Amino acid sequence: MKLHDTSTPGLKLFTGHGQGYVAVNQETYTTNLLVLPDRIEPDWTPHAFAALELADFTRLAGCGAEIVLLGTGARLRFPPLPLRQPLIAAGIGLEVMDTAAACRTYNILASEGRKVAAALLIETP
């Protein structure tokens, strides 16, 4: 699905998503990635959802965001509480949703100037 381009200079926004990919500012990504308004960190984790580790969430806790949107692929899945502890301890909000919803929500929050991060798990078809 193509998303509406708001053309905000310098801001990293999702411009499309589909099975096995997302696009940020018209550039396609096919692996897990972390997107913040000012940067993209490809391969933020090498793990699929079931293999996520505490270190993955510790990295998210240090990314500088006030809220992290975790896109869990084609369907909504909640990570276990012990994995979320680094975010809780840092006072960072976590919203879990499917990847498509995470892309849309991120665009809204980033366009509002919020300190948001989208941590996306990209499932290959």
Kindly report the average pLDDT value.
Answer: 93
Q: SSE string, helix = H, strand = E?
A: EEEEEHEHEHE
Structural class: alpha/beta
Give the overall shape. globular
Largest sheet: 5 strands, mixed
Low-confidence regions? none
What would you give as the CATH superfamily?
MTH938-like
CATH structural fold name: Hypothetical Protein Mth938, Chain: A
Give the distance, in angstroms, between the N- and C-terminal Cα atoms: 16 Å
Oligomer: single chain
CATH class: Alpha Beta
Number of helices: 3
CATH architecture: 3-Layer(aba) Sandwich
Strand order within the widest beta sheet: 5-4-8-6-7
E-strand count: 8
What amount of the residues lies in strands?
25-35%
Q: Compute the CA-based radius of gyration.
A: 13 Å
Percent helix, as a range, is 10-25%
Q: How many separate domains?
A: 1
Structure notes:
This protein is of the alpha/beta class and 125 residues long. The protein contains three helices and eight strands. The protein has one domain: Hypothetical Protein Mth938, Chain: A (3-Layer(aba) Sandwich), CATH 3.40.1230.
